């Protein structure tokens, strides 16, 4: 028997701003992603006090404008996903393609028609769409004119956007998520909340107010979805990084407990449990804030309680460690957040610590806490792929990484975790969110495009394409045949 349940949703994940392109076609407006320069310094640039969302093409390169031109290649790409055997495909709808400025009364029909075609193409290939409503692509006007999600008006604009697409696709799309990696604003509010230093991003009150407004907007989306079709499931989506105390020192253990609450659980607690957790005042006090400093209403708090999410989607790439006593100063990079170097783990080319066991722990921690279905909607290895003259990539390093994480999921299912599916990130090469590079590749499919936008845009399956095809066909990792009447578990060697 497979270690994965029948109907498990194997697939892949992308985001509109990182692959679509066509950024000024079909009536689409600008998004905040269009204003993010490419390159490893993109976060340093947007963190400067004078960054005001101005697009300066003479000074910077903007790879998100082209992405991988999914806007014109979606049929070809979805056909490749179908060839791999995808059961589902997670993607996002670009808000500014539907409401170009974000605050219009009526949607852009041309934008909706594009997603009509994408969704219908998925369904024709027997691929279940899994749609993120807002994935790091706030309409630029809402950041510049309204100051991002700290402004209460954005609840109304989001509600209109969500109602438009939920109504249009209520009978075609079952799985939705409201905000991508909503908790990432704890470190970088630019992508999730549209906040930079020049419009209040350094003020934690604004970050918490923005979160509250997003929580309310998420609850409204759940309410709309359930009123349209009782079979629709709406999830939250968080960035989860399993966290360890560096040692057994109680001081570090307590620091790790608080880190877990503040980063891994806070946003999920509100969206899943429907109310602010007991530690909210302790968390706010760390920034000299009180809950009364936030603009909330009794009606909004009641809405949160009445319309929690149906499941928990999350990204998992790495784990982190907490050390507060000064024993070590060795640090590592990570997915929007780093931490203390864990001596037991190896790291990727970008310094992200690789920890498959941490995924099993994450699944257990989340399921024990919430008792709601889980969905691993991002996981993968960003690496420099070197194709041969025929553009074939032998990416055994990626296969090893994914194999170990799939094995960890199988272990969590054995532990009793209710796991819905698995959509590795960047199933086709796309522009990296953290560095704005094409050279940081995740996909099963190689796209001939470099960091400067040069290339044919042709698509080529990598070795991992055929490996993942077999995984899906087998509904999990293929086990070795029993020997001497005793089956043995596949042993995965550590990454080098």
TrEMBL record:
Protein name: Glycoside hydrolase family 1 protein
One matching Pfam family: Glyco_hydro_1
Active site feature: 378
Domain of life, source organism: Bacteria
Entry EC number(s): 3.2.1.-
SUPFAM superfamilies: (Trans)glycosidases (SSF51445)
Keywords attached to this entry: Glycosidase, Hydrolase
Species in which this protein is naturally found: Lactiplantibacillus plajomi
PROSITE patterns: GLYCOSYL_HYDROL_F1_1, GLYCOSYL_HYDROL_F1_2
GO molecular function per UniProt: hydrolase activity, acting on glycosyl bonds
PANTHER family: 6-PHOSPHO-BETA-GLUCOSIDASE ASCB-RELATED (PTHR10353:SF122), GLYCOSYL HYDROLASE (PTHR10353)
Family from the record: Belongs to the glycosyl hydrolase 1 family.
């Amino acid at each position: 028997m497979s270690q994965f349940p029948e109907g498990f949703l194997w697939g892949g994940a992308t985001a509109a701003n990182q692959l679509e392109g066509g950024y000024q076609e079909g009536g689409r407006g600008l998004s905040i992603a269009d204003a993010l320069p490419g390159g490893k310094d993109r976060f340093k640039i947007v963190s400067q006090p004078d960054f005001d969302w101005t697009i300066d093409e003479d000074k910077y390169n903007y790879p998100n404008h082209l992405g991988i031109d999914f806007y014109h290649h979606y049929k070809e790409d979805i056909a490749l996903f179908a060839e791999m055997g995808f059961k589902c495909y997670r993607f996002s709808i670009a808000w500014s393609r539907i409401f170009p400025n974000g605050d219009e009364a009526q949607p852009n029909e041309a934008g909706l028609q594009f997603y009509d075609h994408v969704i219908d193409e998925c369904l024709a290939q027997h691929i279940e769409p899994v749609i993120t409503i807002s994935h790091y692509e706030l309409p630029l006007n809402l950041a510049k004119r309204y100051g991002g999600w700290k402004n209460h008006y954005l609840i109304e604009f989001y509600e209109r956007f969500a109602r438009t697409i939920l109504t249009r696709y209520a009978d075609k799309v079952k799985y939705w998520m409201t905000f991508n990696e909503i908790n990432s604003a704890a470190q970088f509010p630019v992508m999730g909340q549209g906040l930079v230093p020049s419009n209040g991003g350094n003020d934690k009150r604004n970050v918490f107010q923005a979160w509250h407004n997003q929580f309310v907007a998420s609850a409204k989306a759940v309410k709309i979805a359930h009123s349209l079709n009782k079979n629709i499931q709406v999830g939250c989506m968080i960035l989860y990084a399993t966290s360890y105390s560096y040692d057994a020192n109680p001081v570090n253990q307590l620091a790790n407990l608080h880190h877990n609450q503040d980063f891994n659980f806070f946003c999920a607690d509100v969206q899943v449990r429907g109310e602010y957790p007991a530690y909210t005042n302790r968390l706010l006090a760390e920034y000299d804030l009180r809950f009364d400093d936030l603009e909330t209403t009794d009606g909004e708090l009641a809405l949160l309680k009445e319309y929690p999410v149906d499941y928990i989607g999350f990204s998992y790439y790495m784990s982190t460690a907490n050390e507060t006593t000064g024993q070590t100063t060795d640090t590592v990079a990570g997915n929007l957040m780093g931490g203390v170097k864990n001596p037991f783990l190896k790291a990727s080319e970008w310094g992200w610590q690789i920890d498959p066991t941490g995924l099993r722990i994450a699944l257990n921690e989340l399921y024990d806490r919430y008792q709601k279905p889980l969905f691993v909607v991002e996981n993968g290895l960003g690496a420099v792929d070197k194709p041969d003259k025929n553009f074939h990539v032998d990416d055994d390093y990626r296969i090893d990484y994914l194999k170990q994480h799939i094995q960890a999921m199988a272990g969590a299912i054995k532990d009793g975790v209710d796991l819905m599916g698995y959509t590795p990130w960047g199933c086709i090469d796309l522009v990296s969110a953290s560095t704005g590079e094409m050279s940081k590749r995740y996909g099963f499919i190689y796209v001939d495009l470099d960091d400067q936008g040069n290339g044919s845009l042709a698509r080529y399956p990598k070795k991992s394409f055929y490996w993942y095809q077999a995984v899906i066909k087998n509904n999990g990792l293929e086990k070795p045949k029993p020997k001497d009447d005793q089956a043995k578990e596949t042993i995965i060697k550590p990454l080098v």
